[in-house]
Amino acid sequence: MSEQEKFDAIVLGAGPAGSACAYTLAKAGKSVILIERGDSPGSKNVTGGRLYTYALNMLDPEIVKEAALERIVTQEDIMMLSGDKALIIKYQDPSFGNPEEYPHSCTVLRAKFDGWLAGKAEEMGAFLACGIKVDELIEENGKIVGVKAGEDEMYADVVIAADGVNSLIGQKAGLIEEKRTHLGVGVKEIIELPAKVIEERFNLEENEGAARVILGCTEGIHGGGFLYTNRESISLGCVFLPEEAAQKGKSVHELFQDFKMNPAIYNLLKEGKTVEYGAHLVCEAGYRGIPKKLYREGLLLIGEAAGFVINTGYSIRGIDLAIVSGIAAAKAVISSEKTADVGPVYLRELETTELIPTMKAVDGYFNILDTEWLYDKVPNLAVDIFGSLFTVTGKTPESIKKLAFGAIKNHDLTLWELAKFAIKGVRSL
């Protein structure tokens, strides 16, 4: 196409960030092309599979009820594993599934959800082009004016990169370093089970869902596990730091299979059929993983390309932040008369939508999650203490204080280490 035939915006990546951005732009009457490298939206995307639905409501309240969602999460679990023993902290809140306007959060399957959201962007007038790999940016006088895909060139007032954690476009533009730090490898399986079986095993009502984060499943490696219930399947995954897995002499796949076969996990999956297996890089740095610059003239970074992921240890967020960042970028394009103004307006929109303030607010969790012995000694200690409390031998039981001190010593911890950890936690949070 010629420069005279340019779009108002080119959006790269039809994940939640890109599709939300294209939807908002098209709804405002902008000409926009949404380019997806995969054969279809969602075909290349891997996440745990949970969406906090305020983001969809922010996008358009009219589409929340028709969204391709799986189950409404009414049950939050934190699980600690130690060998074949498990400790589960459970929080149940039926009101999460029955608010006046929309559910608090839902599980999603990316192939379905991403396809649905990209389809809504098309309905608004966005042009969706799949199976296209964008190789280069087109730059004129320091400004990004378009993209190259093979021999084809496409031009636009602004290019919006939603091409994931290893954003090639961000790297080409000089906004992202080629080797990002604090990257984990996420491995995930989707395991089919009948709806009634899922509801029985997790004590759920019809359409209710459970979300579980798991500590102690990584053999001491920085990382953790997650489990989400879908309508007729379970999403099970683990995130590891790959360099630590290499030091263990095990592949990420082997570590994941060991986790999957733990009795506390396997009993939830047995008789199920694995229908999908995938792996994905995950930025574990939170606020500290956001690039120093999120834009150049003619180019914006959104979603995972911008580092918008939160892991607090008890919740993992990415899809909602992706959608919000896409909305913020679109609003910046819509409200800016000059291309040079889009970047600064985008940053203001990220503040107004409370995305950046939210990431700042939980930044301290990074310090806590960076504690090495959190991933083996803490779950082992917690499980042992509770195991002692529930064990009856016929002998005079020890005091809880003595049990706790004994368990601390048995796991090569000291009161001073625990005190320092508590102090770090208070300062961080």
**CATH architecture classification name of the largest domain:** 3-Layer(bba) Sandwich
Query: Number of domains in the coordinates?
Result: 3
Question: Helical segment tally?
Answer: 15
Query: Rounded to an integer, what's the Rg over CA atoms?
Result: 23 Å
Strand content: 25-35%
What is the number of E strands? 19
The proportion of residues forming helix, as a percent range, comes to 25-40%
Mean pLDDT: 92
Q: Find the CATH topology of the largest domain.
A: FAD/NAD(P)-binding domain
Give an account of the 3D structure.
- This is FAD dependent oxidoreductase.
- Its cofactor is FAD.
- It holds the Pfam family ETF-QO_FixC_C.
- This protein has 429 residues and is α/β, with parallel strands linked by helices.
- It folds into three domains: 3-70 and 108-181 and 285-353, FAD/NAD(P)-binding domain (3-Layer(bba) Sandwich), CATH 3.50.50.60; 183-283, D-Amino Acid Oxidase, Chain A, domain 2, CATH 3.30.9; 367-428, no CATH class.
- The chain is 35% helix and 27% strand.
- Strands 1, 2, 7, 8, 9, 10, 16 and 17 form an eight-stranded mixed β-sheet that branches. A seven-stranded mixed β-sheet has the order 5-4-12-13-14-11-15. A two-stranded antiparallel sheet has the order 3-6.
- The radius of gyration is 23 Å and the shape is globular.
- The termini are far apart.
- The model has no long low-confidence stretch (mean pLDDT 92).
